[in-house]
Structure prediction request, 331 residues.
Amino acid sequence: MNPAVTTLFNFRCVAHCNFLYILQHFITKHLAIVEIGTGSFATIFNRTKFITMSTVTITAADINKLRQATGAGMMDCRKALTETNGDFEAAIDWLRKQGQKVAAKRSDREAKEGVIIAKTNADNTTGFIVCISCETDFVSKNADFVAFAQSIADAAVANNVKSIDELNEVTVNGAKVADLINDKLAAIGEKIGIQKFERVEAPYVASYIHGANRMGVLVGLNKAAAEAGKDVAMQIAAMNPVAIDANSVPADVVERERAIVTEQISADPKMAGKPAEMIAKIAEGKLNSFFKEQTLLAQAFVKDGSKSVGDYLKSVDADLKVIAFKRVALG
Prediction:
């Protein structure tokens, strides 16, 4: 080989090796590597943010949030967020359209730690749920903090409040609730506040607290029925229905479910070439299954799976009806 060519070849090899060494040193010191799929190179991200081809930045916190909400795998969550440009709700739908069984994101789950109090007024015609949030379970399990939350819930009942803003202005032992919360924050060193407030009015309201103040339920009935009220409240705590019956499911939720099941069916190779009318009919059948599983009266009764909640209520009193419910949970 020509000596000049050999020299040039050796120089390029050395330069290439030096470049790889410098790159490896930089990555080891400053970056982390995650292998995506079967590509020959990996997606590089720093310890806070992923560098992706998406129009938005997908953070590790975003992925973890979706994973916690759905139970899907980390890489599936990353792909879902990337495919939907970071839209959390759309990412949940994307996962479901891929056939994954994921937990629906519900507004009743907001604070990770805290204390939830559910109680009614003396004649059981109005119920209240108050969630006082904190940052750690050490505080949420503290007897003094539980008593503090109880005192605020008592104030809500005594003053028949209708909102968080109204509750913050209520006076307890000469001080406003908002000021008491600020004092407690300073004393324990954690961010606390009234995270959630719910209220139900009905001829009869039953309340239920589950799991050491981690969940609260209110059920409004059209007539007094203490035992049935408690049974239905426990049902709601266990099964987390989206509405009382199919007719009370919000229209946007129905359309969202219809779109998801229609896309699932259309993506099935066995349905290739099938007419749209057939796919729509099958989709309606799946939608009926959703109503059966996710609406209160159609759900199987947890204390007797041979009957629905609606059947159970009829067995207690033919005229007994649920007219409202609220459920608030930590986690």
